[in-house]
Amino acid sequence: MSNAHKTRVNGALLGEHIGKNVMLIGEVSDASGNDAISVTASDGATVTVNFRDEYAKPEQMSKYIEVVCNVESDASVKALVSTNLGDSFDMGNYNEAVLLMQKFPAPFVAGP
Description:
By secondary structure, the protein is mainly beta. It has one helix at about 90-105, and strands spanning about 5-10, 20-30, 35-40, 45-50, 65-75, 75-85.
C-alpha cells in the first residue's frame, strides 16, 4: 500500500470520495459477519466495512477501530488495513477534527 496521503472522513463525507482510499474511525456496532461489520462513524452514520482480505480484519476486535479503506458507496467501504483503537475513544472530538481537516487541509497533508 502506498504511503500517499489518505483523507480522514466521517460517514457524511464518504460520498465525496467514492473510489478513493480514506481513513475512517468507527465504533463497532455489529461484528457478527465473517466478511463485513457495521460501524458507527464519528458523525453517527452507519457504515458497512467489507473485509475481502483475511489480513485486513483483526482477529480480536475492540470497540473502536480505524480502517484504511477504499470507498465503494456512500455507506460502504472495502477495508485494506484496520487497527484496533481500544474501548475508549472520544468520537465527538474526533469528528470535530475531521471537519477541521476538511476545512483547512494544508496543515494535515504530509509528504510530496
